[in-house]
Amino acid sequence: MAGYIRELGYPARAHTNSDSEVLHNPLTILAGLGELSRIGEVVLNPFLGPRFKTAVITADLPMAVDQPIDFGLQDFCAKCRKCARECPCGAISFGGKVMFNGYEMWNPGVEACTRYRVTNPNGSACGRCMKMCPFNKKGLMQHRLALWVAIRMAPLRKLLIWLDDALGYGKRNPLWKWWLDLEIRDGKVSRPANTNQRDLQLKRPIPKNKIIPIYPVETIPPPGSHEAHPLDRQDAQARASKM
Ligand code: SF4
Ligand code: SF4
User: Fold this and answer.
1) HSE toward the beta carbon, residue 74, CA cutoff 13 A
2) Which residue among 93, 94, 110, 116 has the greatest number of ligand 1 atoms within 8 angstroms of its CB, and so is best to mutate?
């Protein structure tokens, strides 16, 4: 698309998740494609939930400008907390929003999430928060009534959240699995003894005073850096306690 816009005579540049000069989340929100969720740096679209990737094109092309949308997600996420309950490493806040890097948002535990995903020998990657979010539903048409209620009827949101659990949404379904659990140890490819087979934890108590460490922008690796970048977790926890 960027190439096509350039052919029309306007400067244009494509930004993907591997090569980008802009932050995608604020632009996605400004473009009216969703709202920021409790998961942290994840925008939810009312129809797709968190189940999408973004690509951005910056250009000088004159065009109509969209507005940000409000489909009630801030209130829904304040009542829901399903992603926080199901995150295996406690990287999602149970509490309220904070001011983080200039945005009012649920601060994500990026360091804990990344460490869990890339160092777990029993299966890397995770995405459990996104898989079980009530806005992530297969079969949009069959859920359109629930979506309509979630967006328009704030007093019924707690009931919908309870119903989502009661109907077992977010349970693992091995039939949908398409990958092979394999790992390489000492140069040999083998099946790991224990893959991540965690199921819904409906009874997990909500922790009181749980702190999500804060890593402001000056403490994180600069854009494009491929160097090891040590983070000070204790410092980040102390910073969060003060907020
Ligand atoms: S991807 Fe997994 S570890 Fe990371 S925040 Fe989501 S549930 Fe937690
Ligand atoms: S699981 Fe619930 S709290 Fe988490 S992002 Fe989805 S709607 Fe919000």
Assistant:
1) 8
2) 116
